[in-house]
Amino acid sequence: MRQVFLLVSTLFCLLTQAADIRITPDSSLTDAVRKAREMRRLGKAGEVTIHLSAGVYRLYEPLRLRPEDSGLSIIGQNAVISGGMKITGWKKQGKLLVADVPDFNGRPVDFRQLWVNGQKAVRARDIDVSNSGGDPFEQMNRIRTYDKKNHILWVPKKAVEKLMANSHQLKANCQYAEMVLHEMWCTSNLRIKSITPDGDSAAVRFHNPEAKLQFEHPWPSPMTPNTGHPSPFYLTNAIELLDEPGEWYYDIRTHKVYYMPNKGEVINEAIVPVLETLVECIGSAEHPVRNINIKGITFSHTTWMRPSEKGHVPLQAGMYLTEAYKLRPQIDRPNNHKLDNQGWLGRADAAVELRHTENIHFDGCRFEHLGGTGLDYVEGCRGGTVTNTTFTDIAMNGYVSGSFSPEGLETHLPYQPTDFREVCTGQQITNCEFYNVTNEDWGCVAICAGYVSGINIEHNTIHDVSYTGISLGWGWNRDLVCMKDNRVHANLIYNYAQHMYDCAGIYTLGNQPGTVISENVVRDIAKPSYVHDPNHWFYLYTDEGSSNITLKDNWTPEEKFLKNANGPGNIWENNGPQVNENIKHHAGITK
C-alpha cells in the first residue's frame, strides 16, 4: 500500500510541476504555445509559462489559444505583440514623403491607420488644423437637406469642391473618399459614390450597403437646419485633402502611401496595421479555455476594415447595423412603450477576443495603437480579471463584455438564452486607465458591457473619451433578461463627451436586478459646439428599460441626471455634490 502511495505521489508531482519556455522576438510565439501544449499533453508539466523577452513579436495571423492550452501563462518584459508592418524607403516628393507598401503574406494590403514615430498620423481630411484655434472639428461643415426617399445628402457645394472633377463627378484620386457624419450619439462612415452640384449645393450619394442602411434607419438620425443644430461632417481619404503636416493618404491602386511631415520631422519608424485581431481564445460551452494568465504584454497595431469595404452605420456604442428600418404602424409591446424601428447588429473586431472561456486574466498589460476595439469578452465567458492595464489610442471601444444581441435577434427583443452558458458572467475590471480611446468612432465608450451578469467595474480612471465613460446593459426593454448583480464602484470619469452628447459618465439600459452603481465620481464634461443638443448631457443616465438598479453615493458637481423611460425598482440615494468628500478622493485607480 505504501508503494502505491509513493507511486501516485510521484506521478502527481510530475504532472503538476511547472515549466518555463523563454523566447525572443525572432522566435515564433505560435510555436511556443504549441510546445507548451505538447508538454502538458505528454505529462512533462502541469503548468507552463512562456516568457517573452523585450521586443516586438510580429504576427501574420492571430495567435489562437484553445482548450488544450488551459493553464498557460504568457509573461512579457517590455514585449509587444503587434499586427503591424514597417514601411521603409521613404522618398521626398515636393512637400510629401512617399513610400511603397509591400505585399503582406503574399497579398496586397489595405489599412485605415498609420503610426509615425509612435504617434497616430491623421488620415487626410478637409479640416484645417492650422487655423483651428482649438478643437479642429469646430470647423466641420454642416449638412443642408437629408433626402431619405432618394438616398441623397445635400451639402454646401464649397465643402466638396476639392473632390469634384470638371465633369462634376469624383476625381480619379477621390474614388475612395469617405464622409464621416455626426448623428446625435453616433458617427457614420459613408463611402462616397458620386457628387452632383446644383447651384451652391451638392447632392452626395453613397455606396451600398451603407446607403440603404443610412437612409432607412431612424435612430440615430442626422439633424437638419430646421432643428437649429444641423449635423456636421468631414471628408477623408482623398489625396486632394492631404494638405496639413501630420496627414497621410494611401493609394490602394498604386500601393503607395503619402505622408506630409511636420516641420523638421524625420521618419524613424512608420507602421501600418495588417491584422484586425492579435489573439483569440476559442473554446466551446462544453470545453472552455481555462485559466490563462497574460501579464506585462502590450497589444498593438491593428485595424478594422469593414468601414472601407461596407461602410459603418452604428446604432450605439459602435455596434453596427446590418439591417434597420422604421415601423408603421408601431409594434405594441406589453410592459414597454411602442417600438418604432427594427434593427439587427454586428460588432467590430478587437485586438484580443475571447469566446467560451473561464478565468482568462490580464495584468499589467497595454492595449494601444488599435484600429478596432481593445479587449472583448465576446460570449460564453465566465470570470476573468483585467487589472493594472492601460487602454489608449484605440479607435473604438476600450473594453467590451457580453452580447449586444445575437445576429439573429432583433436588438429591442429581450435576450434570455435557454443556455445561460452563452452569457458573460463574473468579469472584473479594476485599477485600469482609459484615455484617448474612441478616437475614430466617436460613438464608442471606454468600458462597454452589454448583456452581462455579475460584472464588477471598480476603481478605474477614465478620461478624454468621445462619448460615454461606462455603458452597462442593452436592449431598450424592461422585460426580465439575463442581466443581474452587476457592480460599478469607485470609478473616476472626467473629460468625457468630447465629440458626442446624449451621454453620461455612467449610462445604463435594461432590467438588471441586484445591480449597484456606487461611490463613483463623474465630472468635467467637454463642451463641443457641434453636438445636436447642447443641453442633452448627464453625469448619470438610466435609459430605456433600466430597472431594479441602485444608484447611491455617487459624487457629481450637480444633480444633472436623466431617467428616460425607466422600468420599476430603481433606487436613487444620495447622489450629487453633497456626497462625502472621502468618496470623492478615493475614486479611480488605487496605488
Molecular structure report:
This protein has 591 residues and is mainly beta. The model is unreliable at 1-15 (pLDDT under 50). The protein has a 28-stranded parallel sheet that branches. A 7-stranded antiparallel sheet has the order 12-18-15-16-17-14-13. A 5-stranded mixed sheet has the order 7-8-20-19-11, with no helix packed on it. It is built from 6 helices and 49 strands. β7 and β8 form a beta hairpin.
Q: What is the topology?
A:
Layout: H1 2-16, E1 18-23, H2 29-41, E2 47-52, E3 55-58, E4 63-65, E5 72-82, E6 84-86, E7 91-93, E8 96-100, E9 115-116, E10 119-120, E11 122-123, E12 141-142, E13 145-147, E14 152-156, H3 157-160, E15 178-183, E16 186-198, E17 201-206, H4 210-216, E18 232-236, E19 247-251, E20 256-259, E21 270-273, E22 279-282, E23 289-302, H5 306-310, E24 314-316, E25 319-331, E26 339-346, E27 350-363, E28 366-370, E29 373-382, E30 385-387, E31 390-394, E32 399-401, E33 424-425, E34 428-430, E35 433-437, E36 447-449, E37 452-453, E38 456-458, E39 461-463, E40 470-472, E41 487-489, E42 492-496, E43 503-508, E44 511-518, E45 521-525, E46 537-542, E47 547-552, E48 561-563, E49 571-573, H6 581-586
Parallel strand pairs: 1-2, 2-5, 3-5, 4-22, 5-23, 11-19, 22-27, 23-27, 23-28, 27-29, 27-30, 28-31, 29-32, 30-34, 31-35, 32-36, 33-37, 34-38, 35-39, 36-40, 38-41, 39-42, 40-43, 41-44, 42-45, 43-46, 44-47, 46-48, 47-49
Antiparallel strand pairs: 6-21, 7-8, 8-20, 9-10, 9-21, 12-18, 13-14, 14-17, 15-16, 15-18, 16-17, 19-20, 24-25, 25-26
